[in-house]
User: Which sequence fits this backbone?
């Protein structure tokens, strides 16, 4: 039981490049989330998927897209990376409704130059 | 006004000390409460849920005060390994997401 896994662990992009961050969970959770964490800013929600087939914007969705591929997988795509997207990205999952505790993946450290 | 507020610290305490953190939340419709722990450069991990009657897990005690809209975390007999950032987390009724505080840093020294 791996919990929540994320790939890659580290990535360096040039401005304007695109990439997809992958997230998978094996806990049969309904809900999945993408956060970014920057120094002094705390965790900020980018997008979430309350259940398979649905996605919703969080606090900071601009510049990102998501896909809930199936119940296990939730990907985050940066179409044209910007230096402001340099951050640590965490994926999380939870059982869903009612909202319960979330379990986090190990994170992806992204640098955009 | 931020929805979940925490003193960022750091709280510097010696091993064996007792330390307490408070967290205030602004929305009275908040219904679920948690404490998470985050080590440097790691993911947040659930430390404990917070129940209305208060709850204890070993050296850790969590309390909820709905009237004053705050939750607290008490750590007794601090260990070096308790050094981390502690995140206060709430769920507001009707919302599908959790709201995280920015965290309180604890540094336990020998």
Assistant:
């Amino acid at each position: 039981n791996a919990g929540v896994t994320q790939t890659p662990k580290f990535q360096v992009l040039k401005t304007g490049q695109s990439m997809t961050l992958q997230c998978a969970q094996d806990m049969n959770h309904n809900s999945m989330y993408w956060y970014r964490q920057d120094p002094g800013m705390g965790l900020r929600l980018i997008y979430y998927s309350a259940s398979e087939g649905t996605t919703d914007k969080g606090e900071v969705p601009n510049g990102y897209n998501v896909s809930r591929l199936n119940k296990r997988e939730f990907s985050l795509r940066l179409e044209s990376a910007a230096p402001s997207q340099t951050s640590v990205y965490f994926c999380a999952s939870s059982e869903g409704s009612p909202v319960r505790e979330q379990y986090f993946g190990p994170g992806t450290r992204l640098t955009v130059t | 006004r931020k929805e979940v507020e925490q003193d960022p610290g750091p709280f510097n305490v010696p091993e064996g000390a007792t330390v307490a953190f408070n967290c205030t939340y602004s929305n009275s419709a908040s219904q679920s409460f948690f404490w998470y722990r985050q080590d440097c450069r790691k993911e947040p991990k659930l430390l404990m849920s917070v129940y209305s009657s208060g709850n204890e897990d070993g050296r850790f005690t969590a309390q909820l005060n709905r009237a004053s809209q705050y939750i607290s975390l008490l750590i007794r007999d601090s260990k070096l390994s308790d050094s981390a950032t502690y995140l206060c987390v709430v769920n507001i009724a009707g919302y599908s997401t959790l709201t995280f505080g920015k965290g309180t840093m604890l540094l336990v020294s020998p």
